[in-house]
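RECORD TYPE: inverse folding
INPUT: structure tokens
STRUCTURE:
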């Protein structure tokens, strides 16, 4: 719309207001120079863009850490959102990837001795040197030992999984997002009392700024290239043991020989 058209619209609006109120709008002076000045984005807008750009970065062994929360017998008993064996396998995918790629890891339980039982040994056996942080707070971020341990890792990208999604995952997620962490929730390694409970918790976490991922997505993001021979066999072992794709891996080795590899005939770093 040109200047003449804009003026005509303005006069029409003024006339309509006069017809209703009997009063004319006072014409305000316009600072033409101000209209031509570029508008700088606010600091909030800039910080939001920086966070968004940071989330576009791949997760790597150098920039991420992982927190596994409350994989205990009592908590598994309440899981109805997923087949428990799926959750059971997927948390092992995460733990074995953390071990293989040297990812800083935190393991935590709730009421281990008084109610919920020990953290699943298939995971703790991978990290015999780790203290398992026991808590009474559903929100692990409120536990001083958990809080201190995560801060000491020096990583802002935290992969998180736990039982149950609606409390022991979502609560620390919200608080940690509020303190500037980037939270990546391995949704298929979590579980809850119903599918509705799990889905609504994931919805709320994502709306707050968390990033949903899957367990294998994290593994593949860490590996990136099948020619990375130092971790190739370890990733294959994870796939063989905990995923349906393991059947294909076994078949390829049988049909083509033990040299069969996604890295090609001449594996290189």
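DESIGNED SEQUENCE:
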């Amino acid at each position: 719309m040109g200047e003449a058209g804009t003026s005509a619209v303005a006069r029409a609006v003024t006339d309509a207001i006069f017809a209703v109120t009997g009063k004319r709008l006072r014409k305000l002076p316009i600072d033409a120079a101000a209209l031509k000045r570029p508008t700088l984005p606010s600091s909030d807008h800039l910080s939001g863009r920086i966070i968004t750009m940071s989330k576009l970065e791949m997760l790597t062994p150098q920039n991420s850490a992982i927190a596994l929360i409350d994989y205990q017998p009592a908590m598994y008993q309440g899981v109805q959102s997923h087949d428990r064996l799926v959750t059971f396998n997927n948390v092992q995918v995460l733990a074995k990837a953390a071990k293989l790629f040297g990812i800083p890891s935190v393991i935590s339980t709730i009421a281990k001795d008084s109610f919920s039982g020990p953290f699943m040994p298939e995971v703790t056996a991978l990290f015999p040197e780790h203290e398992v942080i026991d808590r009474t707070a559903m929100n692990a971020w409120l536990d001083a030992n958990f809080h201190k341990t995560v801060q000491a890792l020096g990583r802002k990208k935290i992969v998180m999984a736990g039982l149950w999604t609606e409390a022991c995952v979502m609560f620390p997620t919200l608080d940690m997002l509020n303190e500037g962490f980037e939270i990546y929730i391995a949704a298929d390694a979590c579980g809850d009392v119903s599918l509705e409970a799990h889905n609504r918790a994931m919805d709320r976490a994502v709306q707050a700024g968390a990033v949903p991922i899957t367990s294998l997505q994290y593994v593949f993001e860490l590996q990136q290239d099948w020619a990375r021979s130092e971790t190739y066999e370890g990733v294959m072992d994870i796939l063989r043991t905990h995923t349906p794709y393991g059947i294909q891996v076994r078949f390829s080795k049988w049909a083509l020989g033990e040299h069969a590899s996604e890295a090609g005939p001449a594996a290189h770093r």
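NOTES: The two ends are 60 Å apart (CA to CA).
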